[in-house]
Amino acid sequence: MTKAPLLEIRNLTVAFDTPSGTVHAVNDVSYSIEEGETLGIVGESGSGKSVHALSMVGLIATPPGRIVRGEVIFNGRNLLALSQRELFDLRGREIGFVFQDPMTSLNPVLTIERQIAEPLRRHFGMSASQARIRVIELLELVGIPDAEQRARQYPHEFSGGMRQRVMIAIGISCNPKLLIADEATTALDVTVQAQILDLVRELKRKIGTTVIWITHDMGVVAGLADTVQVMYGGRIMESGPVRSVFYDPRGAYTWGLLKSLPHGERRGTNRLYQIPGNPPDLTQEPVGDPFAPRNPFATDRCRVETPPLVNAPDSVPGHKVAAWYDLRAEIQRMEGRP
Amino acid sequence: MSRYLLVKLLEALVAIWGVVTIVFFVSRVLGDPAILLLPVGASQQDLDTLRAGLGLDKPLIQQYAVAMLDMLRGNFGISFQHNRPAMDVVLERMPATFELAGTALIFGTLIGSVAGAIAALKRGTLAEFIVMIAALLGQATPVFWLGIMLILVFSVDLGWLPTGGSGTIAHLVLPGLTLSVFVSASIARLLRSSLLDIMREDYVRTARAKGLLPHTVFFWHIARNALIPVVTMIGIIAGELLGGSVVIETVFAWPGVGRIVVQAIQAQDFPVIQAGVALVAAIFILINLLVDLLYGVLDPRIRRR
């Protein structure tokens, strides 16, 4: 018998009631993640990737947010059925978060020490001096030199990369079973981003946390994740092992994203591929495949009936796609044309 | 730090000099104090003698130079009306002004903070609506009108409280209340919007993601940041109130600095006007300096080394 997954999400659906109508942010999202796995979730802004993660632990404002239905089974418990108090105990302790933009995600008027110590004191009941020892340890772990002295400083005295390291230290402070990083490298320049990714890989090796890495950067996912999940219009369009999804995409959206990446060798000769059309209007009741209006291979069925996320034919186990069309056949037909 | 204070001190001196200069010339345009001081029908000779005695017969620019040099030595002249040093006349009124301003600040800040916090935390409820309507009315109502209405109701009709004067707690209630209404309304409105702004900040989400309890998130992450603009506002209000609430002190016959300056203006008692204005300006600047320093304590980003 296989071990139960650490996190299993079933039919999670989240909506926001706004003055301009109901925004269907997350639609019927289901997936599971094994202990020790690193899952990369890619998608553009508004694809529901951040919202679904925040809604799992009650971090979206309700109202206007509303969890329409679904279950989030984490470590044997349905998080959506927990009381407020149980959520307070869970957040930061069992599920750690690392947020986007370290410029604004740290409180400007509290010292770094205090901000890292808060979850330790809250969840482990540490005294100030106990917490201090652990804070220094964590700062050293995430590669901040002069930890003892830096702990007394404020966020504005840190560079962007250093702040992101602090955010990671906060995220892992209580040794959570699951670490959710939401666009954690997006605000950083490329070299710093590479350093942070190295750090995360090293930390994973050292403490073996399960990680959900939310990003819109395919490269980051390729370098970090075991499995990847592509989201669009609040749905999972394709998921599976990173190699399989990136080398043998079966969803037209994934294919379009990969095709629009620069390859380097054809400098200046070709314009980058661009997915035609605009992101979906989420205030519309979702009908059919959300990507159909922009999909050159869309069939009539795509426009009326939502495709389920099922195993991709002739691919590796675990590679799933939500598509009525057969991408491989379509591409062959397109390329085979005289 | 000492350099910063030195610069601030120089700035303060320049500001006080500017204010006193303006007041010096404006007050001299208003009229001739000798005519006011002497009984109607006084002879030209009496007038001239008095003017010479007060130093008002000299050319304006010479009067100005003498006054400035005296002020540098801390001498603001002798009050025309009271025949005593002008600064003494003003300083005697400070305790009363402090009493009234302190009362209004303490009660206004307490009530305003609680009301503002309720309005922000109970967003979209009847409680918020009531608080905001009350605050809007409190801020929009002219204080002199509110003062007169309170006197009419509580002093004239009900006879519970004195109409004016000072000395007992009962005397303090109505003017204190009137000013508190204005102070608390201003603070409630600013604190509410400041809290609502901060609640949307990313670091508040971070705090909640750490599993911190709501009161920790509120006091340490939201309120701690939302207070920064409120402190500035309290500073400005404190400066205004400590400079003498001219209108309220007049309405309630409260013997404070504001009232004595108004009386001095009516009597064209130039030295008292100058002493009063210089003192008020100095207090205002001092309070602002304190707010500046407090700002550094509240916000490490602008802390000075």
Automatic annotation (TrEMBL), chain A:
Membrane topology annotation: Peripheral membrane protein
CDD domains given in the database record: ABC_NikE_OppD_transporters (cd03257)
Domain of life: Bacteria
Keywords: ATP-binding, Cell membrane, Membrane, Nucleotide-binding, Transport
One GO cellular component, as annotated: plasma membrane
ABC transporter domain span: 7-258
Signal peptide: none
InterPro entries, sorted: AAA+_ATPase, ABC_Ni/Peptide_Import, ABC_transporter-like_ATP-bd, ABC_transporter-like_CS, Oligopep_ABC_C, P-loop_NTPase
GO biological process entries: peptide transport; transmembrane transport
Cell location: Cell inner membrane
GO MF annotation terms: ATP binding; ATP hydrolysis activity
The keyword Metal-binding belongs to this UniProt entry's keyword annotation: no
PROSITE patterns, sorted: ABC_TRANSPORTER_1, ABC_TRANSPORTER_2
Family: Belongs to the ABC transporter superfamily.
Protein name as catalogued: ABC transporter ATP-binding protein
Source organism per UniProt: Neorhizobium lilium
The organism's taxonomic lineage, starting at the top: Bacteria, Pseudomonadati, Pseudomonadota, Alphaproteobacteria, Hyphomicrobiales
Automatic annotation (TrEMBL), chain B:
Keyword Transport listed: yes
Transmembrane domains' residue ranges: 12-30, 100-121, 133-156, 168-191, 226-252, 272-298
Membrane topology: Multi-pass membrane protein
Cellular compartment(s): Cell membrane
Gene Ontology, cellular component aspect: plasma membrane
Pfam families associated with the record: BPD_transp_1, BPD_transp_1_N
SUPFAM superfamilies: MetI-like (SSF161098)
Keywords, alphabetical: Cell membrane, Membrane, Transmembrane, Transmembrane helix, Transport
ABC transmembrane type-1 domain ranges (all copies): 94-295
PROSITE patterns: ABC_TM1
GO biological process assignments: transmembrane transport
Protein family: Belongs to the binding-protein-dependent transport system permease family.
Protein name (database record): ABC transporter permease
Native species: Neorhizobium lilium
